[in-house]
Structure formats: C-alpha cells, structure tokens
Amino acid sequence: MKSVISLLCVLVWMLPVAAYADDALDDGARVFQQACAGCHGAEARGDGPTAALLSVPVPDLTLFARDQDGMFDAARMVRLIDGQEGLAAHGGPMPMFGGLLTGPSEVIDAWDGSPVLTTKPILSIVRWLETQQR
C-alpha cells in the first residue's frame, strides 16, 4: 500500500511539469507558425510559401538532428535562430520578425556544458523543433 501511495504522490507531483511541457511546446509551435513558417513551412520542412522567393534553399528543420550525427544540438539551433552562427540567407539575426523572438532571457547548456543565453520565444521554438525531428 505504501508503494501505491508513493507512486500516486510522484504522479501528482509530475502533473504540473507535464502541463508546463505541453504549454511550452504549444508556445513553440505558435511562435514558429508566426515567425518561421513563412519560409520553413508549417511543418518545418523548408517548404513555406516564401521559400521559393529566396536565393538559397530553405533547410528542412525536421532533419536537423540527422544532419548533426543524430543529436539535436539545442544550443546550436539557438545560435542559428538568433544569428550568433552565420546565416547569410537571413541577412543577420532572425529577430527581423519584430518582437516575436524577444523577451525574458533563459540560459541553456550547450553540448559542451557551456551556457547559452536566449529568449523564451526562441527556446520554445527550439524545444518544439526538437519534437519534430525525423
């Protein structure tokens, strides 16, 4: 009986965490649709309505982990979105979408353990993209 009660306590404790994760993924999907889908497509496959107008191919973001030896490098994705890692196609940082990608800062750890500073909207996009990998 004690183990059943312990299990129930753990499950009840985890409910807010699961709800938060779902909310964060919903936020990521919403911000992606607003700021990124025009070029990258609704499903992040590089087939957005304005992709054909660009002078360089728009990457399929659902293949990001595959192209990184099977690992989704969230810190690198942050650097790609915020312009820390060069993307000539964007003409600089992607926050050209007004205030959509600005907001309170968050720190995440890169694969090498070094901290990467980003905003909540960018982090939510990155977390959503991680769930979209094929």
**What is the total number of structural domains?**
1
Quick one: overall form? globular
Strand tally:
2
Q: How many H/I helical runs?
A: 5
Strands side by side in the biggest sheet: 1-2
The stretches of 5 or more residues where confidence is low (pLDDT under 50) are 3-20
Helix content: 40-55%
Mean pLDDT: 77
Order of helices and strands: HHHHEEH
* Distance separating the two termini: 42 Å
Radius of gyration: 17 Å
Summarize the biggest pleated sheet.
2 strands, antiparallel
What class, by secondary structure content?
mainly alpha
Share in β-strands: 5-15%
Structure, described:
By secondary structure, this protein is mainly alpha-helical. The chain has one domain (2-131). The protein is 47% helix and 7% strand. The protein is built from 5 helices and 2 strands. A two-stranded antiparallel sheet has the order 1-2. Helix 1 (2-35) crosses helix 5 (120-131) and helix 4 (74-82) packs across helix 5 (120-131). It is globular and about 35 Å long. Residues 3-20 have low confidence and may be disordered.
Give short descriptive properties of this protein.
47% helix, 134 residues, globular, mainly alpha, disordered N terminus, two-stranded antiparallel sheet
Concise synopsis of the structure shown:
With 134 residues, the protein is mainly alpha-helical. It contains five helices and two strands.
Element layout with pairings:
Layout (H helix, E strand, L loop, with lengths): L1 H34 L1 H4 L23 H4 L6 H9 L22 E5 L5 E5 H12 L3
Helix pairs in contact: 1-5, 4-5
